[in-house]
Design goal:
alpha/beta; Double Stranded RNA Binding Domain; 7-stranded mixed sheet; 4 helices; 7 strands; elongated
Length: about 150
């Protein structure tokens, strides 16, 4: 009678661990930022990631706005700047010609101090990235931000 219950609890625990380990981030100090400028994604050496630049930028704008931040049009208006970049690693798998890629987002204040840093976790083959995945990763990473400063 206890075995099915134990199996269910174990399954739930394993799935929680599997989904919580995907994104890593460091929190920003609460109350410092309300206006954010979102920079375009830093160019990479891969066409597969460069074509996702608009998706990453737009997802950043939408995620920040949804969390109550004001997204501004120029860096001069902003309390902080959101920067994003791609990290690539050589693949050791069967398709060593396709690199593994992960996405990194960082929030910097006006004095260029890093307030927040997050990434999509371990690299995934570049050909598995698309607009939907990029949007989902940006949204998940930025959920680590605290509420914006009161205006």
């Amino acid at each position: 009678m206890h075995l099915p219950r134990l199996a269910l609890l174990s399954l739930l625990g394993i799935s929680a661990l599997a989904t919580s380990g995907c994104n890593t981030s460091t929190p920003v100090a609460a109350g410092q930022v309300s206006k954010v400028y979102v920079r375009d994604v830093a160019a990479s050496s891969l066409h597969a990631t460069d074509i996702l630049a608009n998706a990453v930028h737009d997802a950043g704008v939408r995620a920040l706005s949804a969390q109550g931040y004001t997204v501004v049009a120029t860096e001069g208006e902003a309390d902080a700047v959101l920067r994003s970049s791609w990290q690539t690693q050589k693949s050791a798998g069967n398709r060593s010609d396709i690199p593994n890629v992960s996405l990194s987002l960082a929030l910097f204040d006006k004095s260029n101090r890093r307030l927040f840093d997050g990434n999509s976790g371990p690299g995934v083959a570049a050909n598995f990235w698309n607009d939907g995945r990029a949007t989902a990763e940006v949204t998940a990473i930025l959920k680590g931000l605290p509420a914006p400063a009161k205006k």
